[in-house]
Every structure is written in structure tokens, then in C-alpha cells.
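User: Some background: our group keeps a shared notebook of sequences we're curious about, and every so often someone picks one and asks for a predicted structure to add to the entry. Today it's my turn. The entry only has the sequence so far, pasted here. Could you supply the structure so I can complete it?
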Amino acid sequence: MAHASAQLIGDRSHQCDATATYTHNGARAYVLCDGIGSSDAVRAWTLTAARRVARHADAEAGLRAVYDSYAAEPERSDQYADVPNACAAVAVTAPGKPLTIA
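Assistant: Of course. Here's the predicted structure to add to the notebook entry:
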């Protein structure tokens, strides 16, 4: 199965969007994270977040697990903290199961 993505950063200094796929036991996850901001830190964080979400066999469960993990970080309880963020779209296919999207 093939897939591709294309990115256009416009006038931003960094590409902070990331895609990831992961296949395990016949399940395949596709993740797109749209990083918010334009810095090395956001770019690295978004790529890691996409990969973490992709390692789950259900779109919603994977997104919730990774969200909960990040939400538990102490610095995220400070409303003024400047921490990386992204919005995400996730789709997972698995043999014998319906497509899940989150």
C-alpha cells in the first residue's frame, strides 16, 4: 500500500506539519498533525506526536492516549506556558474491523 504527502510552508520559517504511518499485525494507522507555530521545537514535537499516535490500532483510542499523556505534563497546567501544540487527523484500518477516524 502506497501513500504520499506534500507540504507547502508559504512564508513560515519552519515546516511544522507532520505525517506518520504505522503498520502492525495488519492494522495501518495514518496520522496528520498540523503544528501550531513555526520553530525547531514545534517541528520536532509535531513529528514525535504524529509517530506516537500512529502506533495505536484505533484512531480515537490512540489520539486520546497521546493527548492524555501530553495533558499530564506539568508545564501544560500553566495557561501562560509556551508549549508545542497541534491539531490532528487520524485514520486506522484493521482487518475485520471498521475504519476508525478521529
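Suggested note for the entry: The chain has a mean pLDDT of 87. The chain is about 25% helix and 30% strand.
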